[in-house]
Known about the structure:
By secondary structure, this protein is mainly alpha-helical.
Amino acid sequence: MLNLLLFVAGLVALIVGADLLVRGASKLALSFGLSPLVVGLTIVAFGTSAPEIAVSTGAALSGQTGLAIGNVVGSNIFNVLFILGLSALVTPLVVHVQLIRQEVPIMIAASALVLVLALDGALARTDSALLLGLLLAYLVFLVRQSRAQSKAAVDEYTASFGRPAGGGWDSRLPGQLVLIAGGLGLLVLGSGWLVDAAVVFARALGVSDLVIGLTIVAFGTSMPEVATSVLAAARGERDIAVGNVVGSNIFNLLGCLGIAGLASGAAGLPVAAAALNFDLWVMLAVALACLPVFISGREIARWEGALFLGYYIAYTTYLVLAAQQHAALPMFSGVMLSFIVPLTLVTLVVVMLRPPAGH
């Protein structure tokens, strides 16, 4: 009963924290001349990735390396398939051209880099330092790029959100920082409660650290992204909704694995064979799937959101069947590989080749 209460309290804290964070971050955008997209890719993405960083670093320090890797890989798969899918069902998401040209390719490149670095069975300290260095370079590039376009950013903000009413306590920088700090605090606190309860539930099922990280913990630490992106979509702040997911995935790969790897000791962060043979490849495939979906009409339509959600359910079902070595696993895998996946690829190719309406 205590764990159930912790789980519910964690969810409430995450939803309230996400609302505060979106409000503060969107108002901060105008104050600093940054576009809402860049704020979603930086401040909001870092804030919602804070639980992943805390969980993976703590897991690495305590020797639960499967949990540390599984949390990041599972979160990235969850972010794209579940969060973008759910957000697109709330409202079709218009995709900023910068995401297609810049951020999604960076996410794909980061996913491929992590996979290549893990091929020897571990993320060494030098690998982790490389990932962190790339994250810092990316952040510097983003801020410089946005500041160079500050006039256009203000115009974009005004067109998206309107000019904020003057005189409000959150119209000035201190109020905005209070909103963001309060939101981040609730996000981290809520994620901690939710994950603690979820791990107890998962342990009772007798599954591995990797599977716990890929499912229950990934779900728990991604709840800030769920709440932030779905609320941003509902409020019409669709740049933040999509940018938050893509930015969080980049932060998870470069920042979370970088910090966890440096904290894991001289031997580096071991990568389980199961993750190397399957889950890291799924993460890369999911990142690659964003390009055709985003390019087709420069929006994520409701049917594409439903497709993403369907694939997340299929992936989770596979993990559960594999963990239990269920007799239905071969049949399930065969149906997915021989029918569902080819049909999806053909559909996406047809959509990409068809000129979008109104363009």
